[in-house]
Design a protein that fits this description.
mainly alpha
Length: 198
């Protein structure tokens, strides 16, 4: 059995050995900018004295454009850091669903892919099923000679499993959808090592 001290030591080794050029904290920086713009907009609205001009909060396309620009800048920044220095443990990227939506737009996605393939690990968290498939297809369609493998245990993994060259479904509590959509089915994650190393 794994002890708490072992997990703590493993966590310490990972954080010391890896540089995490993640993009998951982008939204917090945008939130303060959006609130500032929103506050100024409300001040402008009240000073206009109801002259038929309507000013509302920062929404939709403006918010997405800010996020897209922030993601583009962050990717450019980390690409420069990764080429400038070598990290003994390698690099990892952590990106959430909102930032991934911006990174997968046509004018940024190749930059995202370029940074991603330089990492030892890319963690996409809080993403939709279609985003899982998009990331899989991005690698599959743009890196010739590489084989993509998708592993999932629920209905939300089906599109990713079907998009990959090889799909593995794990039987689980979430039902049989992943198993039915996969090329290979396993009863438990524990059997994955044997399948991959054969």
């Amino acid at each position: 059995a794994i002890q708490a001290k072992d997990l703590e030591r493993f966590s310490q080794i990972c954080t010391e050995a890896m540089s995490l050029p993640g993009a998951s904290s982008l939204f917090e920086g945008l939130r303060s900018k959006a609130q500032s713009v929103h506050g100024k907009a409300l001040q402008s609205s009240s000073s206009l004295g109801g002259g038929g001009v309507e000013v509302g909060p920062l929404e939709g396309k403006v918010k997405e454009a800010l996020l897209k620009e922030k993601v583009r800048n962050r990717l450019r920044q980390h690409r420069g850091k990764m080429t400038a220095r070598d990290s003994p443990g390698g690099f990892a990227m952590v990106i959430d669903g909102q930032c991934l939506r911006a990174a997968m737009q046509s004018d940024i996605k190749m930059q995202f892919l370029e940074v991603g393939v330089q990492c030892r690990a890319v963690v996409c968290c809080r993403v939709t099923p279609s985003q899982k498939a998009q990331v899989t297809l991005l690698v599959k369609d743009n890196i010739p000679g590489q084989i993509t493998l998708a592993i999932g245990d629920g209905a939300n993994d089906v599109s990713m499993i079907q998009a990959a060259h090889i799909g593995i479904g794990i039987r689980g509590k979430e039902g049989q959808q992943a198993v039915l959509a996969s090329d290979y089915a396993l009863p438990r994650f524990a059997y994955l090592e044997r399948l991959l190393l054969v």
